[in-house]
Amino acid sequence: MNPLSTKDGGRRWLTTVGSKPPRNVVAVDDAITADEAYRLAVAGTGLVWHGDYPNARNLLSALSRRCGTAAGKPFQEQRNHQSRRARILGGLLVPLDPGHVLPLRRGPDVRVACTEAYGPSETASLVSLRELLGVVGAHEWRMKGVEIPALGAKIHPHHGVFSPVRGEYVDLVARTPLPTKELAFDIGTGTGVLAAVLAHRGVGRVVATDNEPRALACARENFGRLGFSGLETLEADVFPPGRAPLVVCNPPWLPSRAHTPLERAVYDPGSRMLHAFLDRLPRHLEPGGEAWLILSDLAELLGLRTRERLLAAFERSGLEVRGREDTRPRHPRATDPRDPLHAARAKEVTTLWRLTARAAPVPD
User: Fold this and answer.
1) Do 126 and 156 lie in a common domain?
2) Which segments constitute the Methyltransferase small domain (predicted)?
3) CB burial class (10 A; 0-12, 13-18, 19+) of residue 3?
4) Which of 107, 141, 175 is the last residue of a domain?
5) Separation of alpha carbons 195 and 190, rounded Å
6) Which structural domain, as residue segments, surrounds residue 41?
7) Could you tell me if 284 and 243 are in contact, meaning their C-beta atoms sit under 8 angstroms apart?
8) What is the pLDDT of residues 39-62, one digit of tens each?
9) Among candidate residues 119, 141, 163, the one where a domain is terminated
10) pLDDT tens-place string over residues 330-344
């Protein structure tokens, strides 16, 4: 273990998750023990790796084991544990030379993956090894794509955009009877998968909105690959201007704080997006039109929201339930007893709520 070199000290900090660089850093290599690395990381010291790349990955695994598990703990304790674990594991850093070249023995070529995530680089930088592995994994998913049976094609997620690996919500949109084939809004489009399913089913025009530029770029690329006409993207907080006879929204399912930008696809503090969607929906739904709200009941099973509160939110926004479609999750975590949320996931139901605006009372 050595003091950080001037070269390392002048490197630019890279992150897409908003993490802050450690205040104190030291240069380490293959000689450091896992126990010593864990002690330093817990204290908030950044460890800049200069050894063999596979050994860095081994050290990251050893640090993860030392962080323990929160399985069986209440949900919020699990979230706090995840946050602490992310901080500790994020303390193992690797250098990148200009052009995103990884200067470690037996290190992979990460140039394309890093350029996709961070943009071009002409300066030396530092990045958390844990984040770098996520960047490389996201690049591999982007190249491989996710098979969507309802499309008979693949969707290619970008780094920082939630991947549609949970296919049950896609199947709900693919099978629910369409109230129109004229126009639909897809709110919070992400990869664009639901907008693409609607177009595949014959909806002539779909306006897909998101407030994340990364998501909109991802959706546009997927629309181009699929070759559907009538698919539009628009950066918007929630709704585009105007009204539509069909509005689709798959908001984050859990009303809890997100720790990273990617988690914002899953966690919605205070159900802010859900309530914004419901409260503004009547102004963007054509008379007699239908909104499809896709929600899992996982929040209810975890004690984060009650069914009564959800139904009361519908009522407060002037909405009525026209019908619903339910399905059970098929993803591996739903049947994995090692998953910390297994007890809730084993009972989980995902619902497509068919909502319509309540008719205004007719004056005497």
Assistant:
1) no
2) 154-296
3) exposed
4) 141
5) 10
6) 2-141
7) yes
8) 999 999 999 999 999 999 999 999
9) 141
10) 766 666 666 667 677
